[in-house]
Fold this sequence. Notes:
The complex is a heterodimer.
Chain A: H1 22-40, E1 44-50, H2 56-63, E2 76-79, E3 87-91, H3 99-108, E4 114-118, H4 120-124, E5 146-148, H5 155-169
Parallel strand pairs in A: 1-2, 1-3, 3-4, 4-5
Chain B: H1 3-8, E1 11-15, E2 18-22, H2 25-38, E3 41-47, E4 51-58, E5 63-70, E6 75-77, H3 87-97, E7 100-102, E8 118-119, E9 127-128, E10 146-150, E11 162-168, E12 171-178, H4 186-190, H5 195-202, H6 210-225, H7 231-259, H8 263-284, E13 293-294, E14 297-298, H9 306-329, H10 331-337, H11 345-351, H12 355-359, H13 390-413, E15 429-437, E16 440-449, E17 452-459, H14 462-473, H15 481-488, H16 493-496
Parallel strand pairs in B: 2-5, 6-7
Antiparallel strand pairs in B: 1-2, 3-4, 4-5, 8-9, 10-11, 11-12, 13-14, 15-16, 16-17
Amino acid sequence: MRRPRWLQGPRLKAEPAEPADAEARALMAARMEAAAQARLGRSLALLHVNTGSCNGCELELRALSNVFYDLERFGLRFVDNPRQADVLLVTGPLTRNLTVALEQAWDATPDPKWVVAVGDCAVDGGVFKGSYAVVGGTGLCVPVDLTISGCPPSPGRILTGLRTLLEAHAGQGAPRSG
Amino acid sequence: MSGHSILQAAEAVVCRPWLRHILPPHDWSALARASVADGWTLLAHWADTHAAHALYFDPVALAAVPVSVPVEHGLYPALSPIYPGAAWYERMVHDLWGHEAASGADPRPWLDHGQWPLVAPLSVRPQTATEGDPPQPADVASDSLMLLQLGPVWGERQEVAALRLTLDGPFIRQAESRLGYSHKGALALMRGKSPRAAARFAARLSGDATVAHSLAFALATEAAADVQVPPRATALRVTMAEIERIAGHLDNLAEIAGLAGAESIRIRCGGLREVLARAAATAFGHRLMMDGVVPGGVAVDLTNDGAEVILRALGDISMQMSWLRQAQDGAALFVHLAGIGRAGTALAATLGVGGVAGRACGLGLDVRTVFVPGYAALSPRVAVRPDGDAAARQQLRIFEIEESIRLIGGALQSLPDGPISLPLPQVSGEGIACAESIRGDVWHWLQLDHGQIAAIFPRDPGWCLWPLAERVLENATVDDAALIRLSFGLPSSGPDL
């Protein structure tokens, strides 16, 4: 096909492009990686560790799986083995009889790991503070990253706490509604 | 010699609404033997600093029979040779008060895992604990068997306990549970407090039976102080207790359906439980109505639109009930549950099992029909099944949801006006009362000393459900174990105290 008359001539030949700016390229790569981490890296495996709870917190943890909260849509899922877990969700006032079990669960959880104290008892022993049978809050045994108070905390409140952890875990990506 | 003739010869103290007979040691043992012959059940066994106590139920007279034996030189006659289910109580009595059951069936520790700073923390002078060995599980019969150790960290969003299964191929030959992990020292915390302050601990004995435990505790306090709460409080208590029952049964139905792969039932029951929990939060200010029932009445009145919100939620549940009944009896789930976890009537009766587990194997006791105030005018209906399996327990839970909806409707329709609580007098006294929790009858015994709790024991249904579940597991395959545990709804925190 003949080129139109106005496109003919040596002046309109494609010139070799400048090489991409290395600095800008590195910047862009970092941004894409961050976005991918925020979009795709949103998954945390939760292990529930009961350290002497009355079953009130467990009721509300179970409620997280009902259709109203549906926590799996946020990439949160419960596992039953510390080796599969990213997060230990601890409930109860840490009875002396469970201290060893909590330590063992924490040791068996691979790094990086987070500990969330769910409910007033796990935060600081709650009403059972001072009992001969109770150590107190989870933090007296393992390092705690997040506390969710309430007796028991509502599922909505637990979910908000877990999503905060998720956002922090996923980097500085914009919060995404479910 | 019958139980009542032994009692007639003994001295007695008032333990409202009954008498507590104080028996010499040989009569204590004789009564235990006579109670078996008379068809009584042993409901609970506990102690205080100077005596051991037992609570029997006489099904003919429809009466609770509390008896005591003085502890001499740290010893009292054991009940476990006559009632094997009493062994756990005896181990608990030894761990908390330091009294030893002479010739008891099992001398191993129970609640005390060797981690407390004190020995016998409820005794007059608790000693500082020395380094001890943790209790060992019972020996395994044969080397060729495999051991499956479950818990105490299950990762199941359930209560905490350990279960050791001895397996012969896929069959469970021996099941031994180990509780005490959630022992929080509630009895020591309640002692010396006013009933209102101690009620917070009663409400936290068992989270999904918080209303039932609060109610039994409040009724026992009111019996001890000999007061009657205002009629509006009684009606609101019935409302709360029945909301808790519906929510608890829905939760249990959802969990079992989830485990059995019946996803549609899990989704609906879980959603309906949430609807009801939100209605409870609107009406009473708390999703579980924790701390709602207090000695002297109730802590909160219904909000202005409370009754309407509750009735609307119950309407939502009612609309799903015929679907739920069909789905439950539908092929998939019913076939899965039929025959699983079958409990024998004789065993359940010996252990004093009530609630859904008891009614599913023909034992018809529901303390709401006899003892709990506020129910007589509503005439609650009690259903009983003969099968004793997981399917029967599911059918009963569905029946009880529908019945509780009717009871709440009745209670709210004729809700009396007036005060919701009264102040308790600063008196001394002793009382026993009960309430029907989602798992069966809860009994509270307590002594007031000038308005303060001097001694208390709450009996949770877990005391009889765990031993029952152990025996039932021993005839099952290991793949059914999780379903069987869930079907009994085994509680730990309540019996762990």
